[in-house]
UniProtKB/TrEMBL annotation:
PANTHER family: ATPASE (PTHR38149:SF1). Pfam families: ABC_ATPase, ABC_N, MRB1590_C. Residues 5-168 form the ATPase of the ABC class N-terminal domain. It comes from the Bacteria. This is ABC-ATPase domain-containing protein. InterPro entries: ABC_ATPase_C, ABC_ATPase_put, ABC_N, MRB1590-like_C, P-loop_NTPase.
Amino acid sequence: MRTGLAEELRRMDGASYGRYKSLTGSWRMPGCTLEIVRGQADPFAPPARIAVHVPAGQAAFPGELWSTPVRRRALAGYLARQAARAAGRGGPLHVDGGGQEVLDRASCRVGGGEGAGERWPGGGGEPGSVTVRMGVELPGRGRRIDGRAAEEILCRRVPEMAERALRYGSLDPAEVSRFVDTVEDSDALRRALEPLGLVAFVADGAVLPRRSGADDRPLTGPGAVPFTSPDAFRVEVDLPHAGRVAGMGVPEGVTLIVGGGFHGKSTLLRALEAGVWDHVPGDGRELVVARGDTVKIRAEDGRRIERVDVHAFVSHLPSGADTGDFSTDNASGSTSQAASLVEAVEAGARTLLIDEDTAATNLMIRDARMQALVAKEREPLTPFVDLARSLHRDHGVSTVLVMGGSGDYMDIADQVLMMDSYRPSDVTARARELARVPTGRSPEADAFPAVTHRRPDPGSVRSRAKGRSRVRARGTDALAFGEEQIDVRAVEQIPDRGYVAGVGFALELLVRRGHLDGKRTLAEALDLLDRDLESGAAELLAVYDDDCAVPRRHEVAAALNRLRSLRVHR
Ligand code: ADP
Ligand code: MG
C-alpha cells in the first residue's frame, strides 16, 4: 500500500502526461483506499480507471443490508446511484450509476458475508466493505501533468464522494432500507412465478408507461393510468416486505393480448420484457416481473444466421438452400425472426414475447384466403400460429403475443386479454366462442421439432484486434468485439451500455475459460458461464476495466449469434 499521493502529484506537476501511469497501485487515503487501476496515456485517451475501497468498519452498514446476494446487489445499486450523484455530471469523475434497473454492476460492489475469504483482485471484497469503480479524466496542461488539479480530484473530490455516498452515517437510513427491500421483494416475486404456474405478474397499481421513447422513467401525472388486474387473472402473492400483493398473473401456455391501436398493448409487453430486471423504488414496475428465462423475439432483417435449423418455419427456399441447416449473411424479416426464435429456445428461453409491431407478418399469420390463393407448395413459410401450441405442449415454451391485427390466434390461445384504454379485461370466453365458427383455415404443421444444438467453434470468436483485446460497448446499439462490430439493436432487453460491455466480456470469458471448445453445445457452454457468474462476478469484473453489468445467458447467446465471424459445428 502506498502513501503520500498528494505529494507525489505535486512533484509530478509539469511532467509529461504519460507519467500518470506510474501512479498505478493502491494508495492509503483518509477513510478509504484509492486504487489506480489504469493510468491515462494522454489527455485524449479514455479516462483512467480507479477503484475506491471503503472498509466495512468505515462504511458501517448494518449487517442486514448485505446479508444475502440479492440484498448486496440492491445495496450496491443504491450506492452506485448515490456515488454517481455525488460525482456530478460533466465533471472529471464518471460513475456508472445505472438507470431504472438494479443490475449486478462493476461500478459498485458490496463484499459478501458467506463465501468468506473472497477477496477481489486489487483489494476490497471483505464482508460489508464497499468498492466503487469509476473513470477519471486526469487533468493536464497540454501534454503536461496538472499536478494541483489532479490532487484536487484524487485527494479531495474522491474521498469526499466516498464520505458523502458510501457511508451509512451520511445516508438516509429509511431510503436505503426501502431500496434494498424493494429489490428483495421483486426478486421474491419473480421466484414465486414458477411454483404458481405463471410466466409473469403485474401488480395492481403498477405504472407501465414511460415518460417517452427516450426516457425510461415512469410517466407521471393524471394521464398515467395505473394497472388494474381483471378478476379472472387475479393472483395474490405474499412478499417479505410489501406483504400480500394482488395483481395479474400471466399463466404458462399461449397468451394473446388484443385490443385497439394505442390502447396500451405494446406498453404492457415492454413491461413484461423489462420484468426480468428489478427496478428502483418509484419506477412503477417494482412489482412487474417475468421469469428470468423470458426472451423478446422480433424480426431483424439483415442479420447473419449461422447453421440454424429453421425448417419448422421455412421450407424449400427459392435459392434451394437447406433450411434445416441454414446460414445467410443477410436474413429476411421472416427468416431472421425464425432463427432468433430457434436460437432463443436453444439457449434455454422458456417464455417468448412477441409484438406484432416488430414481427414479420408473414411469419405470424397466413389466413384462409391466402391459403386458397397461394398453394402451400409455393409458400416456404409456416406461420407461428401453427407452431405456438406445440412449442408449449411438447417443449414447455410459453408465448405471450400482442396481436391486434389477426383473429386466427383465437384458435390456439389459452387465454386472451384485451387492453381497452390501458385497462385489461379477460375476453377468453368470447374468443373461444368466436373460434368455434370455422374460418376455413387449415393448420400447416402439427409439431414444433426438437431444436438442433450447435457447437460454436472458439476460433471464430476472437476478441483480439491488432494484438490486443478489444471489447467495447457502443452505447446500447453495438458491441465492438475484436475486428467485428456486433449489432445488438434488436436485442431489446438490453438495459444500458454497461450491460452491453458485460455481454462482450462474458463472450470473451466463454472462450478464455475454454467453455467453448468446439465440442460443447452452446447451451452447455452457457451453463458453465452461468456457474462462473453465480460463484461471484468479481473475477469477471476484475480483468475488465470498463463499466459493465453481469449479463444473462440469453443476451450473451444473442450477441454470439449476431457475431458475423461465428462458425459452428453440429
Ligand atoms: P398499442 O400497442 O396498443 O398500440 P401502446 O402500448 O404503444 O399501444 O400505447 C400507446 C400510447 O399510450 C403510448 O404513448 C403509451 O405511452 C401510452 N400508454 C400506454 N399505457 C398507458 C397507461 N397505462 N397510462 C397512460 N398512457 C399509457
Ligand atoms: Mg403496439
